[in-house]
Structure formats: C-alpha cells, structure tokens
Amino acid sequence: MPDRAVAPFARGRTFFHGKTVDSADLPGTSIMGQVHVFQDTDPSDEAKHRSNGDVVAVAVRNVSGAALLPKTLVQYKTDAIGKEVDGNANSYSQLVAGVVDDHLPTAGCPDDDICWIIVKGPCIVKSAYINMGKLVAINDAVHAHTADSSLKGATESGRFTCNAAAAATGASALLVNQNVIGRAITALTIGQTNYDTLIDLSIK
User: Fold this and answer.
1) Which of 60, 120, 194, 201 could form a disulfide with 182 if both were Cys (CB 3.0 to 4.6 A apart)?
2) Which 3-state string (H, E, C) describes 116-129?
C-alpha cells in the first residue's frame, strides 16, 4: 500500500544524487520497489501545488545501460518487475512500468541509480516525436507509442500517443485498451509532437 511517510529520497532527486555510481557496489536494494505518495507539485516550483491531489511513485533501479530521461515511459526488466527498469516503453502491446519522475533535471536518472517512476496521478509525459495518431482532447485515453527499439535515443522511444477511434481492431484494440496509461489533462494537436503534456496516470 502506498506510504505517505518520509520517503528515502525526494522527488526530483535520485538515490545517489550526483555521487559516482559504482556498478560493482550498488546499495539501495531495500529501497527498490518501495511505493510512496507525494503531493502533486509543480516541477518548476515544488512549493507550488499543481493540483490538490497526490501522485503515487515507485522506486526503481535503472539497469538500461544509459540515463533514463524525465517525462518518458519506461518498461520493467522482465525478471525484476516492480524493482528494475531496463529501457523505454516502445509498444502499445507491452506493460508500461511508469513515467520517469517529471521533477528530475534534464540529465535524468543515470545508469544503476535509483529514481521514482510515477504510476498514478498528474504527471508530465512527452508526446510522440513524430506521427501522432490524432489530436488529443482532454480526457482522451493515451498509451505508449510504437518505436523502433527501447534504447535511449531511439526514434519515438518512451513517448505516448492516442490512436484514432478506428485505428485498432481485434487483438490490437484489446491490447491498446488494456495498456492505456491514463487520460489527458491538457489537449494536444497533431502538430504538437515532442511536447510536454499533463496526463492523469493510472498505470496498472
């Protein structure tokens, strides 16, 4: 159950917080998988409430081999679900772990460090870099955008999109609906690609 007690490290920070990460000696195992509830605050000013609600976050270790950037969708490592993420989400057909803390600085979470991923509540998420399926209206359901790979820098990797109403059928439609990550709080036009968009996350 989510905990509102004192978190092991603050939102907007990582566990190592700029210290050198030694891959041969990685403390923090007891923190991985912890779930905490934070007040929903503005990334540019954490003293300012973005809403009167909360966000639910999970502490995960980045084992992707590269930094994970804020506001991007990530996937769990298959044998460490709930504790480790090994790259960006890159398909509507996969389970999305969460969104890398939108309060983190641009450099994101270094490899082997531990950060928060947001799974519930308002969070800024990057829209598809190109090829948005349709404009996004407030309250539209959104999901991970299909990309060429889960690696950092891969085109479209870690982004969200919104399918046209009739774009998915059969098994594809089932997977799209099953893997919805949340609903848009702000609207988005097709031209607003690679765009910071506030999403009310509800990731299973």
Assistant:
1) 201
2) EEEEEEEEEEEECC
Name residue 54's amino acid: D
> How is residue 122 written in tokens?
């308002």
Task: Identify each DSSP E strand in 1-62 by its residue range.
Answer: 35-42, 45-62
Q: What residue spans define the domains of the chain?
A: 35-202
Q: Rounded distance, CA 160 to CA 47, Å?
A: 28
pLDDT in tens, 75-99: 999 999 999 999 999 887 778 999 9
Enumerate residues 6+ apart whose C-beta is below 8 A from 27.
none
CA 169 – CA 165 distance, rounded (Å): 10
Do the beta carbons of residue 198 and residue 122 sit within 8 Å? yes
State the Cα–Cα distance between residues 66 and 12, nearest whole angstrom.
18
pTM of the model: 0.88
